[in-house]
Amino acid sequence: MLSVSQLEMVVQIGRLTITFMIFSSIIQIISVMRMMTLIIPMPIFIFLFPRRMKVKLEDQVCLLELAKKLKELGVKQDSVFYWVITMTTNYHLSYTGGDKSLLPLERNDFYSAFTVAELGEILLATAKDDEQLQILYDRMFTLRLNQKHETEADDRAWMLVYMIENGETDVEKLAETGVTAG
């Protein structure tokens, strides 16, 4: 018969053995993964394990149609990117860094191409309290899950349009907060 101290020692040895086995398995997995990077040809490895997605600038700003709607609703045209009309009457993205003197102000045919970050700041400023902020995030999450729009910038722009049109916020409230609204 084993004494209590001997039983405790057996249990402790069992725990150490299990811990060692788990640790050894992790080391083996890491070794195999390292070998895979040497065995798999690089183009296939990059395809299987992409490092990052390439995002186009147009995916980081709201669509022209949403930019027009925000301007129509009275949102101040203050952004680092603008949709600007060219001589061929097509719109293109123009970076001004917030310097409006680079825009064709006399024609007034430019629209703020609000970025995801700018729209996020505007939307945060519309929340009265934590409860309304949670409702806002729930809506945004639902939009992203249902893929109502192609990009998050479009989701955020649409959300701002919705909130202004439905009286959940107004342009004057946005102007008071100091964010880009007039």
Can you describe this structure?
The structure is a single chain. Strand 1 and strand 2 (91-95) form a beta hairpin. The radius of gyration is 28 Å and the shape is elongated. The protein folds into two domains: 4-48; 57-177, no CATH class. It contains seven helices and three strands; from the N terminus they run αααβββαααα. The chain has helices at 4-39, 42-48, 64-72, 116-126, 130-146, 152-165, 171-177, and strands at residues 81-85, 91-95, 110-112. It is mainly α and 182 residues long. Residues 37-46 have low confidence and may be disordered.
Features:
3-stranded antiparallel β-sheet; mainly alpha; 182 residues; elongated
Question: Brief description of this entry?
Answer:
This protein is mainly α. The protein is built from seven helices and three strands; from the N terminus they run αααβββαααα.
Total beta strands: 3
> Element order, helices and strands?
HHHEEEHHHH
Largest sheet: 3 strands, antiparallel
Helix proportion range: 55-70%
Please give the count of helices: 7
Radius of gyration: 28 Å
**Unreliable spans:** 37-46
Beta-strand residue fraction? 5-15%
Please state how the strands of the largest beta sheet are arranged side by side.
Answer: 2-1-3
